[in-house]
Design a protein that fits this description.
It contains 14 helices and 18 strands. The chain is an alpha/beta fold. The chain has two domains: 79 residues, no CATH class; 354 residues, Alkaline Phosphatase, subunit A (3-Layer(aba) Sandwich), CATH 3.40.720. Strands 6-5-7-1-8-13-4-14 form an eight-stranded mixed beta sheet, sandwiched between helices. A two-stranded antiparallel ribbon has the order 2-3. The protein has a two-stranded antiparallel sheet with strand order 9-12. Strand 17 and strand 18 form a beta hairpin. The longest helix is centred in the last third of the chain and has 25 residues. The radius of gyration is 23 Å and the shape is globular.
């Protein structure tokens, strides 16, 4: 595999839909208008069902949950969790190393807050996958697709959609919140594939740190608004008269379920509170960081605490530097300026999230994983910048960068009942290859599924052709990341 990989130019695809019917995200974009056509009696029935939890055999909030913090573009493992201070300057970079709370474990100087709570998480240093492009690398990590070629849309559903789908088969939720929420989620190269858009996330976009931030289409309580919803009943009635004989994949049934979820969000006033960061005191908001990343992770904690079971968020945008992600090629960013630029917000937000998981008693139920699709090349290279901006010199200036590197990278894990303060695996002296306790993308996925109570080795889902397809083809849960019963 060469030192540098180039992602092909692809466009994200929201997944398959039935002809003539908009997809799930399109419904959300349109303000859930397609779902506001229930009759008022039906609306009230949904509200009653959503607010009643007495008949639930097991409260939703007791179910295990996962928060995945995604670093799109891939963070440099050498400049964060796997420093190589004894390597030559062409590899090690300019950052010093610091001791952590775990004896013998060192991080770079960019992560002092995480170093101080390293006993509360486990570092996996021997992650490896085989795809060098952003699309294929993301698909390997999030869906287990072994193809190393970049594709315009995913062949397999990502683990988040699979978990949402399988949990949905267990029966209706008493909790009015969606099972799966993404706060700026990693949707660019991933999605539901053959499961259909009805199992995609409820998407929260925008900057939660903005004073004007709000989540639309939740918690309506105005009677006039409810009457307005009822006036749209005619469309619903017309749709109900359509023959469903053409619905070969049961997509309309899935959309019916999503319709119910959407209406619950609209009509249950309790849903608004879960998304409302003003309910947190100023000290807590400050601890996470008064920026988009800090408030995204605070919202993630609030949502899983309120009963969301699958929670994803991407740390991207202006806090990353000029190109809004962690893709620190020399043409994009001065890699070391970029790492310095984003380090404070990243270190603070992740530290606060992990601390809160333990302080609030969520550490058995909620698993937190922080990762990207790959690491960065251990050997530093130089190229001309393509433009000035945060963490990038003026166009034409030679600056250092690191390229894509799937052969070895790091991620961190917290909560989930796992034993923390540990290091799993190792890379060679220059950080080029995982050499001890090598873990694959399938192992990564199997570990997450295990926490969610899903037997990845024996779970099959029918694909577009009706062929039973494993959710993980190879791999098994990483023993050190299995929580104690």
């Amino acid at each position: 595999m060469s030192d540098q990989f180039h992602a092909s130019s692809v466009r994200p695809c929201p997944g398959p839909n039935l002809p003539g019917l908009p997809g799930r995200r399109e419904f959300i974009r349109l303000g859930l208008g397609g779902f506001t056509s229930l009759s008022l009696p039906g609306l009230m029935q949904l509200r009653a069902a959503a607010e009643s939890s007495a008949t639930a055999a097991k409260p939703d909030r007791e179910k295990t949950a996962v928060i995945m913090v995604w670093l799109p573009g891939g963070a440099s493992h050498i400049d964060t969790y796997d420093p190589k201070p004894d390597a030559i300057s062409d590899y090690r970079g300019p950052f010093g190393t610091i001791a952590t709370r775990v004896p013998g474990l060192q991080f770079t100087e960019l992560l002092p807050m995480q170093a101080n709570i390293a006993d509360k998480f486990t570092v996996l240093r021997s992650m490896r996958q085989t795809a060098g492009g952003h699309p294929a690398g993301s698909m390997q990590m999030l869906s287990g697709d072994p193809d190393t070629r970049d594709k315009p849309k995913p062949k397999y559903p990502d683990w988040m959609t699979v978990a949402n789908y399988l949990r949905a088969q267990e029966g209706p939720r008493s909790n009015p919140l969606p099972r799966y929420v993404g706060v700026k989620p990693p949707l660019e190269y991933n999605g539901p594939a053959y499961l259909g858009d009805a199992y995609s996330p409820f998407v929260v976009s925008g900057d939660p740190n903005s004073p004007s931030f709000s989540v639309p289409n939740i918690g309506l309580s105005d009677p006039a608004e409810l009457r307005r919803l009822d006036r749209r009943a005619n469309l619903r009635e017309r749709l109900d008269t359509l023959s469903r004989s053409f619905d070969q994949r049961g997509e309309l049934g899935a959309l019916d379920e999503f319709e119910g979820q959407a209406m619950t969000l609209l009509t249950n006033a309790k849903t608004r509170d879960a998304f409302d960061l003003s309910k947190e005191d100023d000290a807590t908001r400050d601890r996470y960081g008064r920026n988009s990343w800090g408030q995204q992770l605070l919202m993630a904690r609030r949502l899983v605490e309120a009963g969301v079971e699958v929670m994803t968020t991407s740390l991207n945008g202006p806090l990353c530097g000029r190109v809004n992600n962690w893709d620190d090629h020399a043409v994009n960013h001065h890699v070391f300026d970029a790492m310095r630029f984003r380090a404070r917000a990243y270190d603070q937000a992740v530290t606060a999230l992990i601390e809160d998981i333990y302080q609030r008693g969520l550490d058995k139920r909620v698993l937190v994983v922080v990762t990207g699709e790959f690491g960065r090349t251990p050997k530093i290279n130089y190229a001309a910048s393509t433009g000035a901006g945060n963490a990038s010199a003026p166009a034409g200036t030679q600056q250092p960068g690191r390229d894509h590197w799937p052969r070895a990278f790091s991620n961190i894990w917290a909560g989930g009942g796992i034993e923390t303060g540990r290091v799993i695996g190792a890379t060679d002296k220059r950080g080029e290859d995982a050499i001890e306790r090598i873990c694959t993308a399938d192992d990564f996925l199997a570990t997450i599924y295990h926490h969610l109570g899903i037997d990845a080795a024996n779970t099959l889902i029918n694909d577009f052709n009706g062929r039973p397809t494993p959710i993980v083809d190879h791999g098994s849960p990483i023993p050190e990341l299995i929580g104690k019963a």
